Structures are given as structure tokens and as C-alpha cells.
Amino acid sequence: MDALPHIEVRDLSMAYGDFVVQRGLDFTVNKGDIFVVMGGNGCGKTTLMRALVGLQRPAAGSVRYGGEDFWNSGEAVQQRLKRRLGILFQGGALWSSLTLAENVALPIAEYTGLPQARVDEIVAFKLALVGLAGFEDFYPAELSGGMKKRAGLARAMALDPDILVIDEPSSGLDPLTARRLDELIVELRDSLGTTIVVITHELASILGIGNNSIYLDTESRTMIATGHPQDALKNGHPKVRHFLTRGGEAPPPRPNLPAQTP
Questions:
Q1: What is the dihedral of CA 258, 90, 29, 11, to 10 degrees?
Q2: Strands (DSSP E) along 75-146, which ranges?
Q3: To 10 degrees, what angle do helices 175-192 and 145-156 make?
Q4: Is residue 199 part of a domain?
Q5: Which domain holds residue 64?
Q6: Is residue 91 situated within a structural domain?
Q7: What is the CATH number of the domain that holds 38?
Q8: C-beta separation of 1 from 55 below 8 A
Q9: Which residues contact 191 (CB under 8 A, 6 or more apart)?
Q10: Which of 35, 50, 51, 171 has its CA 20 to 30 A from that of 63?
Q11: What gap in Å lies between CA 125 and CA 155, rounded to an integer?
């Protein structure tokens, strides 16, 4: 895979007024990474995500996409850079009054000006990509938690972003559904070449799909570079190893799963 950085975060600090959430964050996400931002509750993971995707200006530092400094660019450049991003929020963030097809079609219709027939084709393809073919006319309230997450993923992929940012993909899901969603994330990376940043505290996801990572420490309010999560589990910083074992033994390997049914 191309080793050029997709995202470069340099000396980033995030704060709410005088309260500093995290300071001095410095890391690189390369093309094709599944990059994990991990840490316990309240450590600043979601705040970092908001700074990455343009929702919250950091107190200091820079976020660069392909060498372009997002927060020190004008509105036109920021909008162009945002088009490179797809975002899956923790709860899926689907519009409850719209069908799945209408939810996925929203960004396509807003940003492309394609004819409706072509939009419908793209929507059908994106839903099929996440295993929801035939569910176009369903409303979010008619879906399980895992299906909502997959529908949110389809919408995040609607404009073919080359970077996908996912906030707590496994939150609220049973282990089997969470595992299948993780497998889908890996499939998207492998088949589409998408660079993926995953914000999570779930051990199974961290150890199962990440190939690079950082740990946000609540006490020091800064990051600990951890590299590959599996390496960090064996030889990483004591705080990271404690987090990855929850203070005990390493979690057992996941069992093999049966093939996913539609």
C-alpha cells in the first residue's frame, strides 16, 4: 500500500475553555491503515474525532490531509477536504423520518447533482455493499442495532471517501454482531483501499482489526504511541497493556464465525 500519510496530526491540543482534554497529540495515519484511537471513557476520543473531521476547532496544533492544513485553510479548501471524509457516528445518526435509501441518497443528491436514476443505482450498490440489499424502503426504527450501524456505514461511504472515520462501531452491539461489523470494516479497507480511523474502547475491535494505534491517557492528558495493538498487548507501555487486558489476562481469541447470511 502507498506509504504516503493520509492524515498528519501535529502538536494537537483540545480544550473546552480552560479545561484541557488532551495536549501534544502527534501521529500519522498512512494510506490503507485501520488506525485505532483507544482509551477509557472521558479520555477525549470523541473530541479528537470532532477535531479530525472539522466539527471542533482544536486549541492548538494542526490536522493535515495530504499535506494540507485543514484548520489553517479557507472555507473552500475545508469543504474540499471534507469531501474526502466519510463519518460513521456512534449511534448511526440516521434520519428517523427517512427510509434507508433516502438516508444514503442525501449526501449524493446534495453534492453531486446526479440524475435520480443514477442516485438510486448508487444507493442500491452502497446498501448491498454492507449487506442491506432489499432494505431500501425500511425505516431506521424497523432495524436492529447492527443493521443501523451498517446503514450508517453505507451513508458514510456514499461519496466514495478515501478516509473513513468511525466512532465506537461496536458500542451497544452483541459480540457476534460487533464481530461481523468489524469484518465488514476490514473488507471495505481491502476492497476499496479506504483508510479507516476507528475511535473505540472495545478490546475485540482494537485487537481484531487495528494495524496501528494511539492510546489517550486520562491522567497525563496526552497520548501514548502504541503501534500495532497486538504488539502493544505484549510489549507496550504498562498503562496500555493494563488497558488492553483490563488489568487481568489478555482476552481469549475470537472464535471462528459462520458465514454471514443476508
A1: -150
A2: 85-88
A3: 20
A4: yes
A5: 1-84+163-172+195-248
A6: no
A7: 3.40.50.300
A8: no
A9: none
A10: 171
A11: 11
Query: CA angle at residue 203 from 200 to 209, to 5 degrees?
Result: 75
Residue whose grid cell is 469531501 = 83
Q: How are the residues of the chain apportioned to helix, strand and coil, as percentages rounded to the nearest 5?
A: 35, 25, 40
- Rounded to 5°, the CA angle 188-12-239 comes to 75
Looking at residue 254, the DSSP 8-state letter turns out to be P
Answer whether residue 114 is part of any domain: no
The fraction of the chain above a pLDDT of 70, given in percent, is 91
> Which residue from 109, 50, 54, 110 is spatially nearest to 78, judged by alpha carbons?
54
Read off the pTM: 0.87
DSSP E strands: which ranges in the chain?
Answer: 5-16, 19-30, 34-38, 60-65, 68-69, 85-88, 163-167, 195-200, 212-217, 222-225
The three-class DSSP label of residue 183 is helix
Instruction: Kindly state the percentage of the chain with pLDDT values over 90.
Output: 70
* Count of structural domains, the chain: 1
Grid cell digits, residue 231: 504488539
| Inside any domain, residue 150 | no
222-225 vs 212-217, strand pairing mode: antiparallel
The mean pLDDT value for 38-56 works out to: 93
Which pLDDT score is estimated for 72? Answer: 94
Give the model's pLDDT for residue 259: 44
pLDDT tier, 247 (very low <50, low <70, confident <90, very high otherwise): low
